Amino acid sequence: MRALTLCAAGKVRSAAMAWALKDCGIEAVPAGLLSESRDFILGIGNLVDKVILMDNDLLPKLPSELTPKLTIVDLGPDVWMNPLHRDLIRRVRSVVKLWGSEGRFSNVTVRPPSSSA
């Protein structure tokens, strides 16, 4: 199994998910929908079995050709700023564990609670 994990820049949310997938024996590479070209995303997307989008708000940026491979893990915007942030790692590992128990990749929402100003 090979996966492409996508967030805005490909450095935090998608990187954390890629590491969690690798820990389970799934080859995964992170990338950014706002930092990589459409051709790059499509090229890698065509080589993988699964495309995992880490923020539902980025869905309009995803090339439509990849939607048949799409699973959404809606973490919302990057509030962690670090792919090794303890809360982020806990969230992505819980999703990977859920997928393992279900035997499939299902869409999941794991957004942190909004902070009130």
Q: Helix content range of the residues, please?
A: 25-40%
Give me the CATH architecture, please.
3-Layer(aba) Sandwich
Structural class based on helices, strands and sheet pairing: alpha/beta
Q: Mean pLDDT score, rounded?
A: 95
- CATH fold descriptor: Rossmann fold
Question: Mind telling me the CATH class?
Answer: Alpha Beta
Description:
The protein is of the alpha/beta class and 117 residues long. The chain has one domain (2-109): Rossmann fold (3-Layer(aba) Sandwich). The chain is built from three helices and five strands, in the order βαβαββαβ. It has helices spanning 13-23, 38-45, 86-102; strands spanning 2-7, 27-32, 50-53, 70-74, 108-109. A five-stranded parallel β-sheet has the order 2-1-3-4-5, with helices on both faces. α1 links the parallel β1 (2-7) and β2 (27-32). α1 (13-23) packs across α3 (86-102). The longest helix has 17 residues, at 86-102. The model has no long low-confidence stretch (mean pLDDT 95).
